[in-house]
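Q: Got a minute? One more chain.
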Amino acid sequence: MFFSIIIPIYNVEKYLNKCVSSILKQDFVDFELLLINDCSTDNSLQIAQEYVKDNRVQLINKESNSGLSDTRNIGIRNAKGQYIIFIDSDDYVELGCFHKLFEVISENKFPDIVYTGFIEERGNNSLLKYGYASQKNRYFDGNAFLRSELKKRTLYAAACFGIYKRELLISNNLLFKSGIFHEDELWTPQVVYHANSVYTSEMAFYHYIRRNESITKVKDKTQNGLDLIESCNELDKIFQSIEDDELRRLMNNHIAMLYMKAMCRGKLYRKKYIHNIDKRYPWKRVLFIYDRIKAILFSFSLRLYYMIDLKIGDNEV
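A: Always. Here it is, folded:
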C-alpha cells in the first residue's frame, strides 16, 4: 500500500460526495481511503456508508465527538500506506494527482515529507499558492528546510499541504494534540524538525475551499487565541533543547510571531483576557529587525498593536 488518504468527517453532507469522488476516480489504485466520522448529526454518515462498497474504502464511525485532532490521530494509527495524505472533507483533489505524486516521490529519493502547491478557491475566484516559501523542486535535508523556511519568516502550518511518510509520524509519535484549535501550528514544526528529508514540488493538486461556515470563520475567536498561546508555550519547551544555536534562535522568532498572532486572533487585549498575555514574551525571542519593531509595539500596547495589525493584515490565519 503506497498512500493512505485520511478524511475526517463532521457535518459535511453538502461537500462529501465531491471530495470522496475526486479520490476514488483516480487512475492510481495503490491507496486506501480512511473515512472517519466524528459523530456527524446530518447525513454525512449515510453518504460515507455508500462508499464502503468500494474495497479501497474503510469507514470508522467514532462513538463520541472529539474533534479534528483526535479524528486525524485515529486515521494515522489505522493507516497502512507508506505515505499519509490528509484531506479535509469539504475540499477535493484533481484527477490524476496520485499517479503524479507517486512519480514525484519515487524520483526524488522517497523523502519523509513532500510539500506541494494548492489552489485556494473563494467563491468564483481561485489562486495558486504553495505550502512552503523555499525553492521549488528541491530536495532538502530536514533541518535545512526548516532553517530555510524560518529565515523567510514563515513556516506554513496546514497539514493538508504536505504528504508524510507514515514511519516518520509513527516512530516519533507525531500525533495532533486533541481538543485545541489551530492544532497544525503545534504539529507541523515538530514534524518538519524530525524529518530527515523534505522535497518541495511545484505540483499543485489540492483544492482548498474557503467557505463562510467553516470553524475558522466563527465570530468569537477567543479560544482560538488562547489555544495558540498554549501552543506557543509548548513549542517553546520543545525547541529550547535544540543544540543548533541558529536554528533555535530562528524557531524562537517563529514562536514569537505566532504569539503575537494569537493575541490578535483572540482579541486578547481585552481586560478579561489580558492576564493570559506576557507583553515581553515576543521581545525575548524575536530575531529579525522588522519583528523587533513589532515586538516593541506589542510590549507598549496590545490594543494599538491589534489595531495596526488589523489594518495591514499581517497576522491573518
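A: Residues 218-312 form one domain.
Q: Perfect, thanks.
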